[in-house]
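Justification of computing resources. Each target in the renewal requires a structure prediction run like the one illustrated here; the chain below, 347 residues long, is used simply to show the kind of job we budget for.
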Amino acid sequence: MPLHASPRLYLRLLAAALGLVAWWLLYGSLASIAAWLTYAFAGLERGSHLGAAVEFFVYEAPKVLLLLVLVVFGVGVVRTFFTPERTRRLLAGRRESVGNVLAALLGTVTPFCSCSAVPLFIGFVTAGVPLGVTFSFLVSAPMVNEVALVLLFGMFGWKVAALYLGMGLAVAIVAGWTLGRLRMERHVEPWVYENMAGGAGAEDVGTAMNWPGRVQAGAAAVREIVGRVWPYVLLGIAVGAGIHGYVPENFMAAIMGRDAWWSVPLAVLLGVPMYANAAGIIPVVQALLGKGAALGTVLAFMMSVIGLSLPEAIILRQVLRPRLIATFFGVVAAGILLVGYLFNFLL
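Resulting structure tokens:
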């Protein structure tokens, strides 16, 4: 840091450091606070269905929101180095196999649901990025984003988060590569190719942005993303609380256990119409696992919810013909089924 830095900058750094300390202290105290509010303050009975549900909600709601604020802010700063124009040039200038890997990795720093990733997908196609590469991004962006990884880490530990990261990236890369090999460009709407542009003259704002600007971008990401997803977060946690408090363990084990071969396909089919994002569905995943559901079956359910959705198909219809959309859903669904069976077999 330069010696002539303004006192205001030092004050901002001090405020940020104090904010992180306060965040850490509050996050570490959530379990005891939730127990006190549920049983001492509200007077609910320990071991009761209502008490378990309320404690789950009071603990998970602030926990998830605190994680979201911290992670979305950090990724908002990181994303200033990966502007859409720079990303397009990066992907368009690589061999297709390398592009699939890069597109899947770039999707992990895009904290959007499947529908929010579609406009970037359209931009990549019109910029001349190979179709299979754009599909790798479209799969990875909602399925393997930093929100999902941090929440999985916070709830289940680093092993589950790392396995999910590896398998999710594998699905995105292989699905994109497979779709690229099928040579289905003719099933893209003609207007897309008529409006192709390389974007060479576009300004790359990421190179000129200073660190105060990047911090502002992180804060803007928190306002935009957390401000948009928090109702889904609370709804997902409320559903999870109901499952945690009232659903019998034997019931979930019978429906989503590892012994029933049909549980993984059923979980994928149930997940497609349930449009949600990672922040809203992971608390439900936690509750299902707590009731005896198999990890692979539940992860397949989660991946289908956030990676394959009916609203996504409707939006994609603007640029893709039905046969290509159906092929995309089929390839990704096959990858998710494989992940579900593999997790159930290994764990």
